[in-house]
Write a structure and sequence with these properties.
7-stranded mixed beta sheet, 50% strand, mainly beta, 4-stranded antiparallel beta sheet, 0% helix
């Protein structure tokens, strides 16, 4: 599976941005899709995930501000980010896994990764 993330950019605090991740080369609907991010000098961290069955989870700092969605017909997963904060500045990665849902927050279980897209939020 090949993943291509896009949509990053430079925005101001309070703005919105939508990231997209297009998949190819696999059966998209069979994968749990996740978004992770890595801020400068920090480890990569889980942001959100959307299972093949429709389950969704978010990391606490983004709950109520970010929305993950997927369009299986377009083989694409999205991350709508509202009320962006400077702490959201990071490279955002999409990833795909077939692991059990209970481990969907662990980056080690994701087999396929996109190249990352940079989101910079100025305060």
């Amino acid at each position: 599976v090949q993943l291509q993330a896009s949509g990053g950019g430079l925005v101001q605090a309070g703005d919105s941005l939508t990231l997209s991740c297009a998949a190819s080369g696999g059966t998209f609907r069979r994968y749990t899709m996740g978004w992770f991010r890595q801020a400068p000098g920090a480890e990569r961290e889980f942001v959100a995930a959307f299972s093949m069955f429709g389950d969704i989870k978010y990391t606490s700092p983004v709950k109520g501000r970010f929305t993950i969605s997927r369009d299986n017909a377009k083989n694409t997963v999205y991350l709508q980010m509202n009320s962006l904060e400077s702490e959201d500045t990071a490279v955002y990665y999409c990833a795909a896994t077939t692991t059990v849902w209970g481990r969907a927050t662990e980056d080690a279980v994701y087999r396929y990764w996109g190249q990352g897209t940079l989101v910079t939020v100025s305060s």
